[in-house]
Amino acid sequence: MPTNSAVKKLLFGTVVLLGLLAVVGIVTGAIGSSVLDRAPLISQPEIHLPPQPIFPSASRDRHLGLIDTKEEHGSSAKSESGHGSDTHGQPVAGYDAHSEQSSDKHHSTPLEPMEFAITNTMLSAWFASVVLVLLFVMGARKKSLIPGRLQSIVEVLFEGVLTFATGVLGADMARKVFPVVATIFFFVLFNAWLALLPFYQFLGFVDSDNNIKAHLVRPAGTDLNMPLALALVSFLLVEYWGFRSHGFGYLKKFFAFGSIFKKGIFQGFIDIIVGALELVSECVRIVAFTFRLFGNMTAGEILVVMITFLFPLVLTNLVYGLEILVGLIQSVIFAGLTLVFISVATSHEEH
Question: 55-75, pLDDT tens digit by residue?
């Protein structure tokens, strides 16, 4: 057993080492390098908001500006001979997509409406889905009264989300909506946390100057399509349980024209206006859900990249800790608001 003195020495040594690494990071970062008039340790990053195509390689090179589209058809022989863009390159750091390309910076152009390509955000979503499936399948594969570590983790995760849902909807309703709400919660959470793995930042396709032009994987939450898809799932789930609980009478919440005959013209007109506002509010939820998640995930990604550029090494870990908390908060908010809206839809009473 280590003595208290040994533990204190180890702790002191660790603090000193981290302090030295932090100083080295500040000196070699963009700010320190600018003061010392030297090149920074990490080159200036490029922020790409649109998802970037990764496969097929021809589509990737064209949209990243690594192929001259005007000469694309006339340069196939040149490409095959090893000059120009290597359409058979492997997606790893150091891959030279076009050795004769000029050093001008290119930005990814959007895909055409009928064009299909696998993007880096799509790969990230698939990766998170595979990790989720493997975790829960492996955790539930050998169920035991005395659970092992993996089964214990899975049970804690499930019980936590189910308890949260039960507190909002009650035990019976919580079990009915649990599969979809839990899927939303874990998908948002794992997408945010897996994006903090180091290879998300350094694994990608580079140009002749060794600058990454497209990352192989990028957090799916930074692609507007993923938050929008989750928002639509949440919206449809709420409306489904609204109709299931009240039938077509659920529409009275939005179209209260019958109030004119029941409550008079003045009160009926007010109910119609309130119903119209309810309808607008119901649809605006899709936009709010989408941009809340997209904005937080994109801002977090940009923050991690910029802090790594300004202060590499130790100080970047502080931002990683913040992003772990943000990922948890966003998953709780997304799932929690879905539960609240289901509760409102199922317990609706006529105005």
Answer: 888 777 777 766 654 444 444
